[in-house]
Design a protein that fits this description.
alpha+beta, disordered N terminus
């Protein structure tokens, strides 16, 4: 009513001042439209203030998370933006009847505005779905970000086609039919998303990578925790806190290492060897065996083994005056038994997983004695401490068995050799 009174007053004032009836009518329509548009904007801001205040109050009191996710993603903000477009679509045909060309163009722009606002509202809704999904345990093994990105791409492509068809006044079906000629260009433009979609399906179906997994891929330099799996990229936070971005499809096309199996097993492998100088290996004399019996961890082994060997040699009438006759204990064998007993007594070593103390193929660097066990602790720093403590002890214990660690001579060794050679 107020709008009609303002428009009529403007029209009468113009006619009283000598303007034609047609001109006054046009000015009245324009005035009606401008005032209506201003009222729509004012109504939108008032409604936005009231509605968002109510929604914010409800979300704070609610114990559910979905309303918080919708509010954080600004879904309600986007939905409210539809109201000015809808109201303008009703008001414009009434106020701009005398301007058919301008009205037609304005209605086109209004429709395009509504299309894009609807797209942004759906995009916010999908973002809220992603945030809600991240709160479930299944999100750690089945990420959906890539699928949502594919849906968003399709959604915005369809929205753009609808907007173009509205602007050109053509049917969307005709535009979709014309896309066949641009299929090669579209495949080129969307090559990475298409490859990423296929790779994402394979990764999810085969459970190859999850957010939180530690992966190593030498080609890309990635060596750290997967923080995000999207349609086209996988973000990895490396051990030095740098970020490496790996194409999603490269995890399918190229090899990589996933440490998840180690983490789920509850143990972390210790696989390291010490090279023993073969010149220090010998049969055990009675004095050596008596000394080894004083070592608590191998006392039982030495006594049992000694009884077994003596019984064998006696039964087979072995001539003990020659050591290579019959069966004898060696300092290396006793040392190997000691390593096994020492690791069995270590509370940081898992006893229910692979447990090996073995000799490897002798070589030019001596005979390797390999430790192949699993630590209960997986944390990197503590794991390294445990591993270092074990080998500190082993290196210190080796001389007790009259063995020597193989080590290439250094410059100091050669200098000492020269001094000894020249001194009388």
């Amino acid at each position: 009513m107020i709008l009609l009174q303002i428009g009529s007053a403007a029209k009468e004032w113009l006619m009283q001042n000598g303007f034609s009836h047609h001109f006054a009518e046009d000015i009245r329509n324009i005035t009606d439209f401008v005032i209506s548009f201003a009222l729509i904007i004012a109504f939108y801001f008032v409604l936005k203030y009231v509605v968002l205040a109510v929604v914010r109050k409800i979300t704070r009191k609610s114990s559910t998370t979905w309303d918080d996710a919708l509010y954080t993603s600004r879904f309600f903000h986007k939905v409210l933006l539809l109201i000015p477009g809808v109201l303008l679509g009703f008001i414009a045909p009434i106020t701009l009847t005398e301007f058919p060309v301008a009205l037609a163009r304005l209605m086109q722009l209004t429709q395009i505005y509504l299309v894009f606002v609807a797209l942004f509202a759906i995009n916010s809704f999908l973002n809220a779905i992603y945030e809600i999904y991240q709160g479930f345990e299944v999100s750690k093994s089945k990420p959906i970000k890539g699928y949502l990105q594919v849906f968003k791409i399709i959604l915005f492509v369809v929205g753009a086609i609808i907007a173009i068809s509205v602007f050109l006044g053509k049917s969307p079906v005709l535009l979709l039919g014309g896309l066949g000629a641009f299929s090669a260009i579209l495949l080129l433009v969307f090559k990475d998303p298409i490859l990423g979609l296929v790779a994402g399906i394979q990764i999810s179906a085969n459970d190859m990578v999850r957010p939180g997994d530690w992966i190593v891929q030498g080609k890309s330099g990635a060596d750290g925790v997967v923080t995000e799996i999207s349609l086209t990229t996988v973000k990895v936070q490396n051990w030095d806190r740098t970020i490496t971005t790996v194409p999603t499809y490269s995890l399918v096309a190229e090899s990589f290492t996933n440490w998840r199996g180690m983490e789920e097993s509850g143990g972390r492998r210790i696989k390291r060897s010490i090279n023993i100088d073969m010149n220090s290996i010998r049969f055990c004399s009675r004095e050596m065996l008596d000394r080894f019996k004083q070592i608590e961890l191998v006392k039982g082994y030495v006594e049992h083994k000694n009884f077994e060997l003596e019984q064998y040699n006696t039964t087979n009438n072995i001539d003990n005056s020659v050591l290579v006759n019959g069966r004898r204990q060696t300092n290396l064998g006793v040392f190997r038994a000691y390593l096994s007993a020492y690791l069995r007594s270590n509370q940081n070593i898992r006893q229910d997983m692979t447990f090996l103390v073995r000799q490897l193929q002798p070589g030019e660097s001596g005979i390797p004695m390999e430790i192949y066990v699993f630590s209960k602790v997986q944390e990197w720093a503590k794991y390294e401490d445990i591993q270092s403590d074990i080998f500190d002890h082993i290196l210190a214990a080796i001389p007790e068995f009259e063995l020597q660690v193989f080590q290439n001579p250094s410059g100091a060794d050669f200098r000492n050799l020269g001094v000894k050679t020249h001194n009388p």
